């Protein structure tokens, strides 16, 4: 895996590209990131795309560097995991799965995992005239020494990149674009 400094640099550069979401709250001990968007796919199709994480997640934000090693078992206790060679990583654990409606994970993504913080990532899907209204909420809490306010913009940037990729995959039914 890349060093945490390299990961942080990548995260910050992605943020500079301009994310759609908003860091609603950020303090040393917590952060809240939210995004709302319309995806031009019905809720059941969007949910199916959401749990097919290997097709839309950017492998640059994985430990192996290859998104095809990712899987997500969409049931309570199910693993959002990455497995390759003799290694494995649990990125998160499903705590609520309601197909076509809601997916919630207990997850401290990426470098947050090593910080011993608690994160909850929720995807809420509601029918809309154009397809599905997708709401993302990512809440992270830790000690005041965590410095979450300093990394909130980078976390936001990575999440928005992933949501953009999910949206393209659900809208077009095609996998994530190949690396240049």
Shape: globular
Biggest sheet details: 8 strands, antiparallel
Radius of gyration in whole Å, from Cα?
Answer: 15 Å
**Helix percent band:** 25-40%
Parts with pLDDT < 50 across at least 5 consecutive residues: 1-19
Mean pLDDT: 89
Order of helices and strands: HEEHEEEEEEH
* DSSP summary: helix tally: 3
Intertermini distance? 21 Å
| Strand residue percentage | 35-45%
Q: Give, in spatial order, the strands making up the sheet with the most strands.
A: 1-2-8-7-6-5-4-3
Return the structural class.
Answer: alpha+beta
Question: How many distinct beta strands?
Answer: 8
Please provide a written account of the structure.
The protein starts with a helix and ends in an 8-residue tail after the last helix. A hairpin with a 6-residue loop joins strand 3 (70-72) and strand 4 (79-84). The radius of gyration is 15 Å and the shape is globular. It has 180 residues and is α+β, with helices and mostly antiparallel strands. Helix content is 26%, strand content 36%. Residues 1-19 have low confidence and may be disordered. An 8-stranded antiparallel β-sheet has the order 1-2-8-7-6-5-4-3, covered by helices on one side.
Give me a quick take on this structure:
By secondary structure, the chain is α+β, with helices and mostly antiparallel strands.
Write the layout of secondary structure elements.
Layout (H helix, E strand, L loop, with lengths): L3 H13 L5 E6 L2 E10 L3 H9 L18 E3 L6 E6 L2 E12 L3 E5 L11 E11 L2 E11 L6 H25 L8
Antiparallel strand pairs: 1-2, 2-8, 3-4, 4-5, 5-6, 6-7, 7-8
Helix pairs in contact: 1-3, 2-3
